[in-house]
## 1
Amino acid sequence: MADTDMSNGGATDSSLKRKNSNADEMEVEDGVDLKKVKQEEGVESKTLKFLAYKDLPYEEQLKKKVDEVEQCFKTFHGSFPKQYPELGDWYRNQLLKWFRIEEIRPSPKQEGYRNKCELTIGVFQVP
């Protein structure tokens, strides 16, 4: 009877070796390293996640970005007065005075550029 190690679910050392050797064989198919293919697919899917508009014409990309900013504002504008009703009049005055969604300025370079937008939205209290 083979020694049984309970740390690996009771499998014998020889059965683990067989499983691992089969796994090694399965990782290469027709001379292609399947692990490497999976890693490359993972990188590609991560890249595509950040390039959601890559197949759209540039003008359509800009329009979608404006739509997203407007939707974000509508969501915030709808929830802020409900969460802070005591700031209602102040909020409306500040909004009219300071807040503007400007047109997107197209980049002169349409290939290889990166845009980034970071916002902090909330109540700021002076110490």
## 2
Amino acid sequence: MNARRMYASCVDEDGIEAEGIDTILSFVNTELGGWPILQGSTWNNATFNFSRILLKLNEYWSSVLYNIGTQIDSKNSSFQGIRFDFLGYLREFYLLANITLLDTDIVTVSELEYLRNVSLIINQQSSLTLQNYMVWRFMMSQASNMPKHFRTIRQQFDKVFQGINTEPSRAIVCGEYVNNIMGFAVAKLYINEYFDQNARNQLNGEQTQGENIADNGGLKEAFFVRCSIR
């Protein structure tokens, strides 16, 4: 199972140390347009494309500045709405994938004040500053998958920024990582293992919509529903 292999590779610290950071740096250079803070004057400003790098980061579960995604409607679990803050940006992102966002598509708009302010800040920054910031955010989000030296750097940052004094155990980090990426698959295994047929019927929407959310929301939601059913 992919989830099991993902977890095994995540807890394999010897393998992580052996791999180093060459793979992720290669990804940064080929997919994200490089990192000026490392490349210095050799970084090519002409390669910078704000929309493209945001879209690419979102493909790898790394949202920077704007969060783009879908979420399950709590009143109708068969419905998924687009959740994003700014329709114009969303249209551009979808066009990059040759998808046209229609006027009939439902978009949830929130935090308009943040959008206005961050847009002003973005427009005032150089492409070099924006590229450095977005790649830095991506690298920080991937630090848990890097060798110990880099996880220590991230831990020092978290200690100052969030007051977190110790790094969580590898088992916890990897469990959360797999659930975030493959929550549906993991929840399905959990449901099949611990729920009787009547409970599974409820989760499949035959009885209540609220319980059906667990069938689409990941392991944590499945666990909470199991407790409520019991």
## 3
Amino acid sequence: MAAGTIVASERLIARVRLAAYSAMLRQDIGWFDKPENASGALLARLSSDATTLLALTSESLNRLLVNVTTLVIVFAVCFYFSWQMTLILLAVAPLLTISSFMVNMSVADGDSTSKKNNDADVSAGALLTTAIDSIRTVASLGMEKELSSKYIELLEVSKQTDTRGGLVAGAAFGFSLGMMLLVAALLFYVSSRWISHGTITFEDMFAVLMVFSLSSFSIGSAAQGATDPKKAQQSAENIFEIIDRVPPIDALSTDGKLFSSVNGSLEFRDVQFAYPSRLGAQIYNGYNLTIAPGQTVALVGASGCGKSTAIALLERFYDPHTGSVSLDGVDLRQLSLPWLRDRISLVSQEPVLFAGTIAENIALGKPGATREEITQAAQDASSLDFIRNLPDGFDTNVGDRGGHISGGQKQRIALARAIVRDPDILLLDEATSALDNESERIVQSSLNRLLKLKQRTTIIVAHRLSTIRNADLIAVTEQGAVVEIGTHDELVQLPEGRYKQLLARQANQS
């Protein structure tokens, strides 16, 4: 019975974890921007809440089944020896059970306390994950004591709640056993009277009392799982809140239009937008921009002006509050999201590589890509030479987050991953700004070569203006709107132009 319960519980929890994990991947980016949905918090929640559910479905359920079975056997044996004494047991058994549960329920943790305890556990797990992921920064800033103090504070919340729960459980258990002893005394008194009248024999009384005494521990512990369902209820609410949430931007939804071919014209029309986590900080306030098919457009401006926001809206990481973003004249919200993202490739400032080989990481851009396609993409991204110089070539393991290779090499692999998809729209979000001069020169050369290979709509978000002089159009963003647009030669001719001022400022800084 125990083995069957454990196996069934493990299978159930595995399915719940898979459903929760799949639901997390389905959520919109705005959901992840909330502090309570940070990666560390989600990891801790998935682990701790699932463990709590496992405790309920396996240990508590198994204990309940054992106790119920014990009770049935006890009453059957007692009935065999003395039905009179068994009737007394049956009469007082509900009272014993109800009194035990009343004690537990009257002093057990309420829903708010259980939620506070659960939230503290999740926050502690999130803090631990963040500290380990950022251990170099923690060490360089000497934050060990500070983070340890925060971790202790969070653990103290759980400690106090769990200590109280332990005292409650002990009191309830003691009360249950005390009631059992009172019942045993009652049985002894009544049975002694029946023996004197010849109603039952001493052997019958001894057998019933012995069986009852030996089983009293199981009977008394039947109510010990009363606090577990409360914790499990909170854990279940946390997990199924994620599973049941249908995001406003659903990455798995197949609804929407599909084009047989893409021209690549893009338009931002009267876009108003603020990030969900910072609704008070307006990013776009009437943003307008039209991009013709095949054009290379560079977005420039001061830090925080919303250059990268345009890329986030094109990828539909977010939707504008008002206004629209369209592809070939159709609002992106009317298009199939998986199809849309399949037609776009994004290379960001800090590309993410996954643990695995170089070939596997490039093939993520096009699942099922052949080795020939992977090699061609690497060549187009100017990364073929350095890959071939590695001992294992394309089979070189890049390590966790690409930690085994340099920043410039990571960027070129990410570029190859974008190329292998053969996208209709290429988005470059400050793809060289985090690199040293030599790596930037190599990657920029790769980008320039890539733009000449195929005419596709390309948007470049750039901080270093020297990298975008050859763009077809340069759009300057300020205070949530495009304030200047034109070629490099056109914009530098404007006497008080914002682009000209940005160029002069960078020249002075260099």
